[in-house]
């Protein structure tokens, strides 16, 4: 609390944390809020109270870091909200900026709420593995009804002031000074009865079919949660509000809150929250960072190639209000691409309209389609999104280098190719950078930003700023085959295929990984992405196809184990969903419902016979460990090579780009919860059984961390260059 103003007969309470631009409750703020309320109550000259934030922001709720501190800051908020509500003097909340979590719960204790038109509100506790624990699960349904409260609390979504007004969450929305409006209202309320404004005294609005509604809602909540505990416990707390008196509901809320607080999931989700913010503060091994580089403005961008990726990228740029030129090789491709882009944009515009926003894309100044490279002369940044082929990319970059203005940045959307090689054909390698988008590019949040040997800090800063403007999570990584995401994915998928050789079926492997929490298992994922993509890359690498040296062993490459299974499927035209057959069968080409395919089962058994592999039963533990621990093992190598500056980077990549369950905190966080000595022991065991699989050999960095006593994840990087005499 910084300011306590006595204004006329009105007591104005401003709560804030003076050292932060964002207000979240620390113990000091809570204490000051309580003291202020008690003083206001005791002072007869005070007739009404207004609660607001400082610097135009109401509150971001409890201090999330406090939940993992021993004295659990913020837990005393519920009684303070009750204290506000019990006040005999009218209390009005003036909501500006944000009122989230405990911040919004404070306003629910107030007798009236006024919001600024640009304010955002929400109860996002579910996203950090908790539930609104300051009586919010009991007050919100009483205020806006069960369906709306369930939606807001179980999704954690932010709502606009206009939606809040429609729902009855706020009493008034103002465009001018919110605090002054709140003071005016508080003045008018002096002496008026408040009983009907105390939410704890109100019943939860009835629904004609409450029981049926709740049963159906629970099914939806569980389906969406995919193994995450918090949404279901949020549901239970709201259900308690429909069944029990307020005080009992509050007790239930506390009980459920405590279960979540002590669950590993809350810890993982809170780690993920801070990890995302940590990667925003990028650095490179040479010391470049936001401190050393300023992003350049992107007033106009271009996208080359309107295939699946290019279409999504154009859509993202238009949504970010950056004027775009979309380029294709000829009119036929251009027209197909244009139609697809317009369809995507129409769908996005419809979605945005539902949220009260508009998307302007029919204006040629915002979106232009062309086939002539000359139109790229004035753009500030180009994103090349053509086919994954080095020769083609080099040809394009050479052309761009000659046509684009000297200051323009040249980005390549590649999932694995060498950025330095692409940059080498330009006269400006310092302005060349990899921007690896994930499909569908207008939906997926991840953007891997890959700097090459010559990429300048300004170029990195500009790409990071672009990610931010496009509402994506940019993760800066170094240049190596597959970068971070795909490099860690290769051993994971490789193990999944080896497991098929040894006795598993695609649906067994997928099931185990989906039960773990992945949105989609590796075989369903391959079918979705198209098996031909990897086949083409393996042909380019000379691992299969006509360039393979005659006499090469079917199951070995360069002396190591290799599985030709995916190649054999492609040779039979089984490319996945697009051809209606892959690791599964689909209702038709382009179908989406994967069904186990008896053909695959007999194909696998014939394959094992041909190669004299004895089919064995493989349990869930082995499937999980072999797939996940090889992926994590690669992560340790990536960290040791300086490709990423910390384990958080790998985790943010996996959560946002590869469907890793967020409530498990990312692969490296998961490794820290399993314990590095356990991972090392399992890798050693599997590596002894499969000596021809180098990916199972424990990373030297993993071994070092174990030898150093399994330090906490935050300290891993500090051990990278330390000497260990135990190794
Ligand atoms: C607010 C945002 C939307 C802002 O976004 P923006 O993009 O503008 O900025 P950043 O996200 O980069 O944030 C800037 C900066 O601020 C940090 N930060 C933001 N919010 C918080 C926060 N709430 N806590 C800590 N730090 C925060 C962020 O990390 C950045 O820092 P940096 O160093 O990187 O610059 C966006 O930030 C956002 O969405 N924030 C999170 C909002 C949120 O989730 N709020 C909910 C918090 S949880 C909560 O409020 C819980 C309540 O329900 C009250 C709980 C009371 C519990 C009582 C239960 C009793 C049970 C009894 C159990 C007994 C147990 C026992 O006895 O042991």
UniProtKB/TrEMBL annotation:
Domain 3-hydroxyacyl-CoA dehydrogenase C-terminal: 482-586, 623-710
Domain (3-hydroxyacyl-CoA dehydrogenase NAD binding): residue spans on this chain: 300-479
GO molecular function, one term: delta(3)-delta(2)-enoyl-CoA isomerase activity
Swiss-Prot/TrEMBL keywords: Acetylation, Fatty acid metabolism, Isomerase, Lipid metabolism, Lyase, Multifunctional enzyme, NAD, Oxidoreductase, Peroxisome
GO biological process: fatty acid beta-oxidation
Compartments, as annotated in UniProt: Peroxisome
Record pathway: Lipid metabolism; fatty acid beta-oxidation
CC per GO annotation: peroxisome
Chemical reaction(s) catalysed: a (3S)-3-hydroxyacyl-CoA + NAD(+) = a 3-oxoacyl-CoA + NADH + H(+); (3E)-decenoyl-CoA = (2E)-decenoyl-CoA; (3E,5Z)-tetradecadienoyl-CoA = (2E,5Z)-tetradecadienoyl-CoA; (3S)-hydroxydecanoyl-CoA + NAD(+) = 3-oxodecanoyl-CoA + NADH + H(+)
UniProt EC number: 1.1.1.35, 4.2.1.17, 5.3.3.8
CDD domains noted in UniProt: crotonase-like
InterPro entries named in the record: 3-OHacyl-CoA_DH_CS, 3-OHacyl-CoA_DH_NAD-bd, 3HC_DH_C, 6-PGluconate_DH-like_C_sf, ClpP/crotonase-like_dom_sf, Enoyl-CoA_hyd/isom_CS, Enoyl-CoA_hydra/iso, NAD(P)-bd_dom_sf
Main location: other
Summary of subunit composition and partner proteins: Monomer.
Family that this chain belongs to: Belongs to the enoyl-CoA hydratase/isomerase family.
Protein name: Peroxisomal bifunctional enzyme
Gene (UniProt): EHHADH
């Amino acid at each position: 609390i910084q300011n306590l103003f006595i204004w006329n007969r009105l007591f104005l309470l401003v709560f804030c944390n003076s050292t932060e631009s964002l207000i979240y409750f620390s113990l000091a703020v809570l204490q000051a809020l309580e003291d202020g309320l008690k003083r206001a109550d005791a002072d007869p000259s005070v007739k009404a109270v207004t609660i607001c934030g400082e610097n135009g922001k109401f509150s971001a709720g409890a201090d999330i870091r406090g939940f993992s501190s021993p004295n659990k800051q913020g837990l005393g908020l519920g009684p303070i909200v009750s204290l506000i509500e019990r006040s005999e003097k009218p209390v009005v909340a003036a909501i500006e900026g944000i009122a989230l979590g405990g911040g919004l719960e404070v306003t629910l204790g107030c007798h009236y709420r006024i919001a600024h038109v640009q304010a955002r509100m929400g109860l996002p506790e579910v996203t950090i593995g908790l539930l609104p624990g300051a009586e919010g699960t009991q007050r919100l349904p009483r205020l806006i009804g069960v369906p709306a409260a369930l939606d807001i609390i179980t999704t954690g979504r932010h709502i606009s002031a206009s939606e809040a007004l429609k729902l009855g969450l706020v009493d008034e929305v103002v465009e001018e000074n919110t605090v002054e409006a709140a003071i005016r209202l508080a003045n008018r309320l002096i002496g008026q009865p408040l009983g009907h404004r105390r939410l704890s005294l109100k019943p939860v609005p009835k629904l004609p079919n409450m029981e049926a509604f709740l049963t159906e809602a629970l099914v939806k909540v569980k389906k969406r949660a995919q193994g995450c505990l918090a949404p279901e416990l949020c549901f239970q707390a709201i259900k308690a509000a429909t069944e029990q008196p307020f005080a009992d509901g509050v007790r239930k809320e506390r009980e459920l809150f405590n279960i979540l607080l002590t669950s590993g999931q809350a810890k993982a989700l809170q780690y993920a929250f801070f990890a995302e913010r940590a990667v925003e503060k990028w650095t490179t091994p040479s010391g470049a960072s936001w401190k050393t580089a300023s992003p350049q403005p992107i007033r106009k961008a271009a996208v080359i190639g309107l295939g699946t990726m290019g279409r999504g990228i154009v859509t993202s740029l238009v949504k970010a209000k950056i004027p775009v030129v979309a380029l294709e090789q000829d009119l036929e491709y251009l027209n197909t691409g244009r139609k697809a882009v317009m369809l995507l944009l129409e769908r996005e515009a419809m979605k945005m309209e539902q949220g009260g926003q508009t998307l302007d894309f029919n204006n040629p100044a915002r979106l232009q389609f062309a086939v002539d490279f000359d139109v790229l002369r004035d753009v500030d940044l180009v994103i090349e999104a053509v086919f994954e082929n080095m020769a083609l990319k080099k040809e394009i970059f050479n052309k761009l280098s000659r046509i684009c203005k000297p200051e323009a940045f040249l980005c390549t959307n590649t999932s694995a190719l060498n950025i330095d090689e692409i940059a080498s054909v330009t006269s400006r390698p310092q302005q060349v950078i990899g921007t690896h988008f994930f499909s569908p590019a207008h939906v997926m949040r991840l953007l891997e930003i890959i700097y090459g040997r010559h990429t300048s800090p300004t170029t990195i800063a500009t790409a990071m700023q672009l990610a931010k403007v496009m509402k994506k999570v940019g993760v800066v990584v170094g240049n190596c085959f597959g970068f971070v995401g795909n490099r860690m994915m290769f051993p994971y998928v490789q193990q999944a295929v080896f497991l098929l050789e040894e006795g598993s079926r695609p649906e067994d492997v997928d099931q185990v990984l989906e039960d773990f929490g992945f949105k989609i298992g590796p075989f369903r994922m391959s079918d979705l992405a198209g098996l031909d993509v990897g086949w083409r890359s393996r042909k380019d690498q000379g691992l299969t196809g006509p360039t393979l040296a005659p006499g090469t062993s079917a199951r070995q490459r360069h002396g190591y184990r290799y599985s030709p299974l995916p190649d054999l499927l492609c040779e039979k035209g089984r490319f996945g969903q697009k051809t209606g057959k892959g690791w599964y069968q689909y209702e038709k080409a382009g179908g989406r419902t994967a069904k186990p395919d008896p053909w695959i089962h007999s194909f696998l058994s014939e394959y094992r016979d041909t190669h004299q592999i004895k089919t064995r039963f493989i349990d869930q533990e082995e499937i999980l460990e072999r797939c996940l621990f090889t992926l994590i093992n690669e992560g340790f190598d990536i960290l040791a090579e300086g490709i990423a500056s910390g384990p958080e980077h790998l985790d943010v990549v996996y959560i946002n780009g590869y469907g890793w369950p967020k409530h498990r905190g990312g692969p490296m966080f998961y490794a820290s919860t399993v314990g590095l000595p356990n991972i090392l022991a399992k890798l050693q065991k599997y590596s002894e059984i499969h000596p021809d699989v180098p990916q199972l050999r424990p990373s030297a960095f993993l071994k070092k961390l174990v030898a150093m006593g399994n330090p906490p994840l935050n300290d891993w990087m500090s051990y990278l260059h330390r000497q260990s005499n135990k190794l």
